[in-house]
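pipeline stage [seq->struct] | target=Zinc-finger domain-containing protein | organism=Albula glossodonta | residues=152
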Amino acid sequence: VRGPARRRASPRPNPSKPHVVRPVEDITPDELQLVADSLVGKVYNRITGTTCHQCRQKTVDTKTCCRNEGCRGVQGQFCGPCLRNRYGEDVRKALLDPEWHCPPCRGICNCSFCRQRDGRAPTGILFPLAQYHGFSDVHSYLSRCGLLGQGA
């Protein structure tokens, strides 16, 4: 026998930092050099690291900066390997593009959270399968297979 139903608490306020759109002119050569090209050698640091929206790893490498004013929190931050392997894009080019918007803002994000929020099944680790079928990134593979959904 169950007890009386409990009322749900009101949602917690979002403690994330407000999104700051950094102009291209603020991106330094040192930041561009700190973009991770592979998973090997990434430095994990839960204190000073920043979180990638896709892999959710907190590392000290440079991540993307979404230029959409409506973007929020970690949503616009992607590490080099994730942006390349999942979307076929380059973090350095994204950082130097004043019009670049992150995959969630463009409605093409294929991370498990965004796919589930949109009523689609998470993809899991698809990069090796996409490569096996001749694709350079997961987004291209999902597009070709018709598995992207309404946002693509």
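stage status: PASS
auto-comment: The chain is about 30% helix and 5% strand. Strands lie at 50-51, 58-59.
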